[in-house]
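Lecture notes, continued. The same structure-token format from the folding unit now serves as the input rather than the output. Read the line below as a description of shape only.
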């Protein structure tokens, strides 16, 4: 999906009290297999779509911070009512980027994971369609090439 094909997408937490929209095309989509994501999502991995901070806007509700945000500079945001994990910021690594849980979007078409991270921690039986796999989290220096390749797909 190219930036000219991108349409604004909206999403919400499970109860709908925390609503948001994404107006910018994704920088990259990902599946993270780290133990933290497994535990916070109660699943084998978390799915996300990374967007520029200026392309993410809260429409209603006020997120609460949780999920061991003091670890590794991560700021995890949840709905204070249903406790759905909605988005994460990690300014020390990605700058002004919002990592939105893809499954919170009303329209998830075309957002399959392009990269998968922390595969050293993944469950043995898990597979994804990701084009690029990383045993750990990619370094900040690797992201420009990944973002460029993702934008051209």
């Amino acid at each position: 999906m190219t930036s000219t094909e991108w349409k604004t997408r909206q999403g919400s937490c499970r109860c709908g009290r925390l609503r948001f929209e994404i107006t910018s095309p994704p920088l990259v989509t990902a599946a993270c297999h780290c133990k933290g994501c497994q535990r916070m999502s109660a699943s084998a991995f978390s799915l996300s779509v990374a967007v520029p901070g200026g392309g993410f806007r809260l429409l209603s509700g006020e997120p609460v911070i949780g999920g061991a945000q003091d670890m590794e500079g991560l700021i995890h945001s949840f709905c204070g009512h249903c406790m759905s994990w909605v988005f994460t910021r990690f300014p020390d690594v990605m700058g002004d980027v919002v990592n939105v849980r893809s499954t919170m979007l009303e329209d998830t078409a075309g957002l399959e994971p392009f990269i998968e991270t922390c595969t050293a921690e993944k469950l043995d039986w898990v597979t994804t369609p990701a084009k690029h796999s990383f045993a750990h989290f990619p370094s900040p220096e690797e992201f420009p090439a990944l973002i460029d390749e993702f934008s051209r797909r």
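Point for the exam: The chain has three helices and eleven strands.
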